Predict the structure of Acetylornithine aminotransferase.
Amino acid sequence: MIDAVLPTYNRAPIAFERGEGAWAIATDGTRYLDLGAGIAVNALGHANPDLVAALTEQAGRIWHVSNLYQIPQQQRLAEMLVDKTFADTVFVTNSGTEAAELAIKMVRHYWSDRGQPERIEILTFEGAFHGRSTGAIAAAGSEKMVKSFGPLMPGFRTLPWGDMEALKAAMSDRTAAVMFEPVQGEGGIRPMADADMRAIRAMCDQTGALMVLDEVQCGMGRTGRLFAHEWAGVTPDIMMVAKGIGGGFPLGAVLATEAAAAGMVAGTHGSTYGGNPLACAVGSRVMEIIAEDGFLAEVNRKGALLRQKLEGLVAAHPEVFEGVRGSGLMLGLKCRVAPAELVKAGYAEHILTVPAADDVVRLLPPLNITDEEIGEAVARLDRAAGRLA
Ligand SMILES: Cc1ncc(COP(=O)(O)O)c(C=O)c1O
């Protein structure tokens, strides 16, 4: 008999009832060190007192207001994002998938406005993940995600990951946009080289194609800069954000330049819940904390510390691990065993990690994890690896 919850996930037999910073506490009282952070969502840890205060204070005032009215909390969040990034304007969503959908719509509207409605081809890379809506699975194009859901939305072409020659050959006056994650998350913590990001920007400038970045997983301080593309010194035309920006409350956004968004006038897009006061009160607080002096420097320092310890772990277990990759606190352990096996061994050692494609186990701890917790995490991973030897 089918479960009351549609069984689209293979769930571990653990339920959590509480959280404290980098720790998730199960119903049986077991404390798990959480290096998954809800897949890069709990950016400031569980039950962060500042975020709890922002949420409860707003909850006592007003929860929901339609976008038919002014929403000062949404305005504030949008202005902070505009202030800190390339963007001139922001649409607030509830998730990364919704952000991806709007980004795709914005690209189509842009070319339609320019008298080229047939210019719909968006180039993407293998291993991409943009969500599970019909548009987002068409964009990613992987067999696993699209099987049995055809016919797919047209207009996407998937190229080998990071293959600049293939991209150069594919770019033409039919290319509407190039869309990718600066660091692939689900694809296995695969960073796009800075030089390649700059090359893509140059190709987009030459052909007029828009550069669309998905920073749902790698953004909001995760790589040690507010947004990962900053490392390459380029800016996109459109960017999707979600996960960490809400610190655990459902929140996403599309950021865009004025030129890319100019056609998106009243009536072209909307959302009942997108930009609601609760989500935006929390999101604004997350932004304030990540923007505090020294916060990102600490992410870089802790990222380097974790990486250094993981290199030691890899060296100690060559039969389990092949290497470490990623940047900041978005790190991947390339495994010689099935990633799911390591994740499972981690449960036995009371540490949470997340499997990804390309034989990688992801480590995406809260950005404010302590040095001591980093040491403890690697000790637990060491014991977990020992179980697989
Ligand atoms: C890079 C990227 N884009 C989009 C999404 C979809 O976001 P959501 O699950 O919030 O809809 C995800 C989720 O894992 C993601 O990692």
Observations:
- The radius of gyration is 21 Å.
